[in-house]
Amino acid sequence: xxxxxxxxxxxxxxxxVIRVTLPAVLTAMSTxxxxxxxxxxxxxxxxxxxxxxxxxxxxxxxxxxxxxxxxSSAETFVGQYNGAKLYYKxxxxxxxxxxxxxxxxxxxxxxxxxxxQINFLPPYYLKDGVAYQKIITYWSVLPPIxxxxxxxxxxxxxxxxxxxxxxxxxxxxxALNYLLIYGAGNTIPRLGCRGAAIATVISEFVQTSIxxxxxxxxxxxxxxxxxxxxxxxxxxxxRCCRIGIPLxxxxxxxxxxxxxxxxxxxxxxxxxxxxxxIGINLYVFFIFVGDGINKAVIVICSxxxxxxxxxxxxxxxxxxxIVSLFxxxxxxxxxxxxxxRIISALDVLPDNTSDLYSDLKLVIxxxxxxxxxxxxxxxxxxxxxxxxxxxxxxxxxxxxxxxFVILPASIxxxxxxxxxxxxxxxxxxxxxxTTWFIIHxxxxxxxxxxxxx
Length: 453
Known about the structure:
The chain has 18 helices and no strands. It has helices at residues 14-45, 47-71, 74-83, 91-103, 105-113, 126-138, 142-154, 159-182, 193-215, 218-223, 234-268, 270-286, 288-306, 311-337, 339-346, 357-386, 390-414, 421-445. Helix 1 runs antiparallel to helix 13 (288-306), helix 3 (74-83) packs antiparallel against helix 4 (91-103) and helix 11 packs antiparallel against helix 12 (270-286).
C-alpha cells in the first residue's frame, strides 16, 4: 500500500476548494473550446459547413456522451477510495471503465460505416455533415477512454495533470484546424469539414496518449498499482455501471433533445438554424464553468464521503454557490452587456442578414442567464453524484427539459408557429430553473448519500 505521506488528501477550506476548482474549470474550458473551435473556424470557411457540423456533431455526441458519462463514473469510486486512504484500489475502477469504453466500438463502427443512411440532415447539409460524422465516429472510442483515465487523476484532486493534457490537445487542435480546414498553399489542400474532423481526432489521440503514459508511469505503477489492477472485476464493473448508467442515459437523452431542437430549427429556415447554432456554440463553450465546478464538487464531496466527513459537505455546498455565482457573473456580464461586440468579434453573419442581429442579441443575453443557472444546478448535482445518487437527478433533468423545452417547441413547429429563435432559449431558462429547484430539495432530503466502497 502506498505511503500515506505521498498521497493527497483534499480539505474543505477555501484554499482546498480553489485548488481543485480552478484546474477543473480550465480543463472544462479547454474541452468545450475544442468543440467550439471546430464550428467557429468552419464558420469562416462556410456557414453551411458550420451548421452541418453542428448537426452531425450533435448526432454523434448522443452516443459519445453516453459512453463518456459511464466512464466518468470512475471518478466517484476513485474519490471515495482516496478519501478512505485505500490508495492501492484507485486504478481498479479506471480499468473497468476502459474495458467498457472499448465495447463502444460495437455501436460506433456501424454508425460510421452507415453514416450516409443514419442521419436526419436536410439535403443542403448532407455532404459536409456526413463527411464530418464518418471520421469522428470511427474514432469515437478515444473520448470514453480519455474520461476513464482522467478519473484516476480527477478523483485525487490532481486536475492539473488533466488540464495539461487538454491544453496540449487544444493547441494541436487549433493549429491542425487552421491547416486542414483552410489548407496551406499547394502543400495542404482545403479539406473543410473533413479537415476539422481529422484535427479533432488527432488532438483527442494526443490527449489520451499523454494520460495513458502518466497513468502507467513507474511511480503510479509502484504506489497505486495502476498496472497490477488491470484485471476485469465483474463486481466492480457493474457497480460502476450502476452509477454511470443513469448519467449515461441522461446525457444521451439531453443530446437527443439538443439534436431534435437543432433539426427542427434547420427545417424552419437557414437563418433560424444559423442564429440557433451560434447561440448553442456559445452555450457549449461558456458552460465550461458549470462542467468544471461539477467535477470539482464530485472530487471534494466523494473524498469526504470516503472518510465519513458528511458534516463538511454543507459548508462546501455554500462555498460552491458563491463560486458558481462569481463565475456565472464573469461570463454573464459581458454576454448580456456587450452582445454587439461579441457578434462583431465572431463575424459569423453575412452582410445580407442584418435583420438577424436583433434575434441574435436577445439569444446571447439569454445564453448569459442560462449558463449562470446551469452552473448553480451543476454544483448541487455534483454532490448527488458524489453520493452515488445519479438516477434521481438524471430523471428530473430529462423530465423538465422535455416538458418545458422539447414539447412546446415541437408543438409550435408542427403548428407552423415557431418563428422566434429566442423563444427556444426562454423555454430552456424555465427548464433549467425548475430542475435546479427540484434537485436542491433532493439535496436537503439527504437521500442521496451512499458510501459505495
